[in-house]
């Protein structure tokens, strides 16, 4: 039997975490499980809203079993009963078949959150920024903007001297939030350009891209005083070239903030030298399903089709199509929130038959994972499929002297997966996962870009890390 | 030679499996002998692909090379490379010179062994073979120079070494040699130095010489942007028979420079964009050639891709070469018809 204790820092800090270990071992020994084929994995799930019960069982390739425990929630737990419950693997109300993580309906919930954000905000009475850690975005730092702009001026002066400066100078921001970043950046640009005296502002084209039309409209209003210098585009982050293909080789700066952690991802694991895909299945626990059905006057059997319909048409149309259950859109949002709060994921490990047969993105096969898997032995990590697709779709947009600057929740070394939990969790109505930084670094390297990770200067001490990608050689 | 001969710039598609095996070698997991045998098989396939596509002048696809620089630097006496293992085969070495490179007289036995590469290719095909190597200016850009007071002296020292290699290549039967200067577009102010070095490489070597200058193709991305203005008039002093330039990706505007500066030698016209997997239709290629014919006579026009095909998948590379040949095939009869009508009118005039 393997016991994998990941939150080593918390073990030192938390007596409750340490004292949970004995009962865990007692409980698995008291169970009928074949201990020779059992792994115990202990995490510390920092997200108060998440997709896990404190103790869950995960089949490994049909023969072995993993018991996963959240040490943060073990203090008052009847461990023996919890292990027994996990081994029994109660079905609950399944919302989908077994699927790779990126295909789970949790991403449909996530997409709905951004599409129907205004309705969600109306129902909760607070803007999404208030759900961010710290309660606001980090977009108002003029010093950081100034540094970037002055670097661009230096580059543009040099290119201009060689007659190699294009007429239009493109800057792209993906994930525009409320537009504060764009406004801060552009206002600073105007000031600095006046002092610099080269009239680059006249040639500037600032493109704002976001998945949410609602967010985009809010951002557009924030920068309205910059007129035609700014364009707003609805961009599917995982396929930027569909909207932004015209920008290939032209962008001097692509600025991305807190987009990647919110994009679909699979997880893969290497256990005893064999590679597995983590498959998931979203479900509602029986008691939660009964509670929601009662709360909204529904037969339990109607929950799954109604949730599916909600995810297809959104709360407004749902209330129109089922006024008996949802008298107004607000009531439909209540239903949405209740389902989201109760949503859990069951997991299992399915062997991957050849990395090259696993498609990470449309362009990349699982072969790209090989160096990380082979270097780190037993590991479970995010594939960050959505982030990779977005990142690899963004790099070709760069001018030969352009750069990507991206603020997000990045792991900066694969070893971190051994000592911490990095998602998925829930932020308000959206999904959050840390992004596999070493994988992005590897992919960028294969495309001739150097990637650096630096602490996020706008808010020291936060979990945000800044990734900068620039052409190398 | 046929009208509008087709050729390649040099490199050929490196399939993913070959990249992996090359990396295995640089991580010391397979032997040099095994890799050499793998390369031989890959080169045979590359030549066959070119022949089947109908390319008139073929190359070995540069498939033995890890990249456009290190293959040479690793063989040049006096270039110090402290770490020869690589994370990825395509990465550049960290190379330096700490004292002036030994002159050939001091190390007559050393060779870069390019003639052996050429001879291997020569035996495999009946078609003319183009053999290319990276020029001294670009090689110098990847060397940390701790030896020379004047940076140009390192370039010249490399040129002397490459000249010796070119002589050996010519002795082995190479009659169409190409110098690639992929870094030159990034340093337009140094074009005179680069041309001086090109002439040193060529000196005394009886072969047809081409000079290829592009905007970079590392990882299928341009390394620089701009126009070929910087090349002229300096490049006219290069004693080459042909310049090979990229036009498909950048557009044909720079063709004006050929006329403007009276370039009276061959032009290798880039008609295939090697940075996109999109395969150009033959008609588009033909239209590019027709446009070029407004600036260069057909007798001095050679047709090639913009740059090497190394970053394209094998299937795309094959399709692009086939499209290029098909595009040329659309134009050749038009030229032939033009020639015949000129001849007829001349004959008619006589009578």
What can you tell me about this protein's structure?
The complex is a heterodimer of chains A (473) and B (351). Helices cover 36% and strands 25% of the residues of chain A. Chain A is an alpha/beta fold and 473 residues long. Among the domains of chain A are: 1-89, no CATH class; 129-263 and 382-471, Vaccinia Virus protein VP39 (Rossmann fold). Chain A has a 7-stranded mixed beta sheet, with helices on both faces. In chain A, strands 5, 6, 11, 12, 13 and 14 form a 6-stranded antiparallel beta sheet that branches. In chain A, a hairpin with a 2-residue loop joins β11 and β12. Chain B has one domain (44-62, 96-340): TIM Barrel (Alpha-Beta Barrel). Chain B has helices spanning 16-26, 32-53, 70-73, 114-124, 136-140, 151-171, 191-202, 255-260, 282-293, 314-350, and strands at 95-97, 131-134, 143-145, 176-180, 208-213, 242-245, 266-270, 301-304. In chain B, the strands form 2 sheets. In chain B, strands 2-4-5-6-7-8 form a 6-stranded parallel beta sheet. In chain B, strands 1-3 form a two-stranded parallel ribbon. In chain B, β7, α9 and β8 (301-304) form a beta-alpha-beta unit. At the A-B interface, loops of A face loops of B.
Question: How would you describe the oligomerization state of the chains in this entry?
Answer: heterodimer
What is the number of independent domains of chain B?
Answer: 1
Give the C-alpha Rg of chain A: 24 Å
- Helix proportion range of chain A: 25-40%
Shape of chain B: globular
CATH class of the domain at 129-263 and 382-471 in chain A: Alpha Beta
Please indicate the percent range of residues of chain B in DSSP E strands (runs of 2 or more).
5-15%
pLDDT averaged over residues of chain B? 94
Which class best fits the helix and strand makeup of chain B?
Answer: alpha/beta
Please, what is the average pLDDT of chain A?
Answer: 92
Q: What portion of the residues of chain A fall into strands of 2 or more residues?
A: 15-25%
Q: Percentage of helical residues of chain B?
A: 40-55%
CATH superfamily of the domain at 129-263 and 382-471 in chain A, called what?
A: Vaccinia Virus protein VP39
**Could you say what the CATH architecture of chain B is?**
Alpha-Beta Barrel
At CATH level 2, the architecture of the domain at 129-263 and 382-471 in chain A is 3-Layer(aba) Sandwich
Global Rg of chain B: 20 Å
Count of individual beta strands of chain B: 8
């Amino acid at each position: 039997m393997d016991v994998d204790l990941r939150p080593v820092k918390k073990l030192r800090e938390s007596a409750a975490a340490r004292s949970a270990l004995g009962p865990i071992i007692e409980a698995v020994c008291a169970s009928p499980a074949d201990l020779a084929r059992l792994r115990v994995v202990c995490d510390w799930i920092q997200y108060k809203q998440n997709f896990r019960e404190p103790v869950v069982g995960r089949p490994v390739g049909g023969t072995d079993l993993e018991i996963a425990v959240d040490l943060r929630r073990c203090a008052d737990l009847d461990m023996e009963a919890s292990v027994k419950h996990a081994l029994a693997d109660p079905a609950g109300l399944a919302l989908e078949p077994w699927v790779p993580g990126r295909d789970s309906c949790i991403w449909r919930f996530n997409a709905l959150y951004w599409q129907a954000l205004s309705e969600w905000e109306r129902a909760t009475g607070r803007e999404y920024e208030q759900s961010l850690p710290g309660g606001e975005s980090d977009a108002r730092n003029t010093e950081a903007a100034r540094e970037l702009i002055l670097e661009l001026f230096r580059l543009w002066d040099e290119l201009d001297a060689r007659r190699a400066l294009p007429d239009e100078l493109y800057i792209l921001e993906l994930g525009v939030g409320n537009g504060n970043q764009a406004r801060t950046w552009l206002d600073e640009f105007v000031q600095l350009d006046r002092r610099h005296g080269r009239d680059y502002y006249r040639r500037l084209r600032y493109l704002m891209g976001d998945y949410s039309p609602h967010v985009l409209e809010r951002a557009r209003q924030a920068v309205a005083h910059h007129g035609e210098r700014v364009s707003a585009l609805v961009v599917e982050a995982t396929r930027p070239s569909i909207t932004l293909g015209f920008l290939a080789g032209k962008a001097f700066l692509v600025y991305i903030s807190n987009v990647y952690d919110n994009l679909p991802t699979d997880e893969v694991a290497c256990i005893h030298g064999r590679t597995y895909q983590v498959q998931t299945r979203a479900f509602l626990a029986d008691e939660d399903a009964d509670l929601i059905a009662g709360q909204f006057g529904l037969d339990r059997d109607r929950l799954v089709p109604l949730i599916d319909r909600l995810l297809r048409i959104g709360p407004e149309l749902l209330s129109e199509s089922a006024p008996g259950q949802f008298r107004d859109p607000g009531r439909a949002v209540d239903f949405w929130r209740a389902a989201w709060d109760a949503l859990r994921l069951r997991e299992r490990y399915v062997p991957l038959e050849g990395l090259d047969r696993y498609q990470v993105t449309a362009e990349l096969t699982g072969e790209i994972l090989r160096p990380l898997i082979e270097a780190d032995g037993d590991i479970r990590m995010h594939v960050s499929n959505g982030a990779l697709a977005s990142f690899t779709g963004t790099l070709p947009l760069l001018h030969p002297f352009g750069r990507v600057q991206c603020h997000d929740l990045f792991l900066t070394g694969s070893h971190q997966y051994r000592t911490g939990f990095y998602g998925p969790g829930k932020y308000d109505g959206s999904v959050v996962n840390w992004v596999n930084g070493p994988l992005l670094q590897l992919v960028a390297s294969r495309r001739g870009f150097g990637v650096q990770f630096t602490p996020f200067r706008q808010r020291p001490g936060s979990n945000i890390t800044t990734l900068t990608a620039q052409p190398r050689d | 030679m046929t009208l509008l001969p087709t050729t390649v710039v040099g490199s050929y598609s490196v399939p993913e499996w070959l990249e992996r095996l090359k990396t295995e070698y640089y991580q010391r997991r397979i032997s040099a002998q095994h890799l050499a045998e793998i390369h031989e098989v890959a080169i045979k396939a590359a030549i066959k692909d070119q022949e089947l596509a109908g390319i008139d002048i073929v190359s070995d696809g540069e498939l033995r090379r890890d990249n456009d620089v290190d293959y040479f630097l690793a063989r040049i006496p006096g270039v110090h490379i402290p770490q020869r293992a690589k994370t990825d085969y395509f990465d550049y070495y960290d190379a330096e010179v700490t004292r002036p490179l030994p002159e050939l007289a001091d190390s007559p036995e050393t060779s870069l062994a390019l003639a052996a590469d050429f001879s291997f290719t020569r035996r495999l095909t009946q078609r003319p073979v183009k053999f290319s190597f990276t020029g001294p200016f670009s090689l110098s850009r990847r060397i940390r120079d701790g030896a020379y007071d004047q940076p140009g002296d390192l370039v010249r020292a490399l040129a002397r070494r490459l000249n010796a290699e070119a002589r050996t290549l010519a002795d082995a039967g190479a009659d169409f040699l190409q110098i690639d200067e992929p870094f030159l577009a990034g340093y337009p102010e140094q074009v005179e130095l680069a041309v001086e070095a090109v002439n040193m490489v060529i000196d005394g070597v009886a072969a047809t010489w081409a000079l290829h200058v592009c905007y970079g193709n590392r990882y299928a991305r341009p390394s620089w942007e701009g126009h070929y203005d910087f090349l002229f008039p300096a490049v006219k002093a290069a004693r080459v028979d042909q310049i090979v330039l990229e036009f498909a990706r950048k557009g044909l505007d720079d063709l004006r420079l050929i006329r403007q500066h009276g370039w009276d030698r061959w032009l290798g016209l880039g008609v295939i964009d090697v940075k996109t997997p999109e395969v150009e239709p033959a008609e588009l290629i033909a239209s590019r050639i027709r446009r070029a014919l407004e600036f260069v006579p057909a007798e001095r026009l050679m047709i090639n891709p913009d740059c090497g095909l190394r970053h394209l998948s094998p299937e795309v590379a094959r399709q692009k070469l086939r499209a290029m040949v098909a595009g040329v095939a659309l134009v050749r009869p038009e030229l032939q018809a033009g020639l015949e009508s000129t001849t007829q009118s001349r004959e008619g005039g006589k009578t």
